[in-house]
Structures are given as structure tokens and as C-alpha cells.
Write the C-alpha cells for this entry.
Amino acid sequence: MADPKRSLRRAKLLERVRAVEKRAHAAEAQAAEEAHARLEGVAARSLSLASDYAATGQVRDGLELRARQALASGLHDISMQAAGNAQAARRTADARLAELAGAEQRRRAAQDHAIGISRAIDAPKSEISPSRKSGTALE
């Protein structure tokens, strides 16, 4: 069997590597969540602007009406594209969160392994007592 102290050093190193991996996945998940929130905001704002420009109140002539409708249509298209991008960002964020959960499981397993090795090293070594003779001296 390998040297227990060497195994413990290796297990602790693996635990640190898993912790770094977890932090990296957490940063990626946070960035994906922020991208999703930004795209949701863009979609909502552009849809609101499109509905405001689609309202035909106080139009002076047909040219202004056509320009407003074109602008509203363009904003609506931008809103739909941003909504699609937001859905893609949501899927990406969900995937990153799943990766984060896997990284946390791997880190926890590495930590449990290191704790197990440490306990095995620290456990009192019980020596096996020499076997007693059974029976009596008469046998």
C-alpha cells in the first residue's frame, strides 16, 4: 500500500484543484446569468419602445406615420431577436449551473477522500494481541 502521508498530500492537492475548478464554474455560471438578465432587459425595453412608436396618436402626415411604423417594426424585430438570444442565454446559464453542481460534487468527494485518509492516519494503531493459549495446563 502507498505511503499514507503521500496519499494524503495527493488527496489534499486534488481537493484544492477541485475547489479552483468549482470557482471557475461559478464565475462562468454568474456571467451566463448576467448575460441572460441583460438580454431579457433589452428585449423588454425594445418591445416597450416598439409599442410606444406603434401608437398612431398625434401624427401630422403619412410620411411620419410610415416612419413610425418602420421604426416600431424594427424595434419589434430587435425585441424578438433579443428574446431568442435571452432563451439561448438561459439554456447556457442552465448548462453552466449543471457544470457547477458537478464541480461541487467532485470537490466534496475529494474533500471526503482527504478526510478519510487523514482519519486513517490519525486513528490509533491497535496492535493485535498475541493469541492466548486456550485450555488449561493439564491438557
Observations:
- The first helix runs from residue 4 to 54.
- The helical segments are 4-54, 62-122.
- Residues 10 and 44 are 51 Å apart (CA to CA).
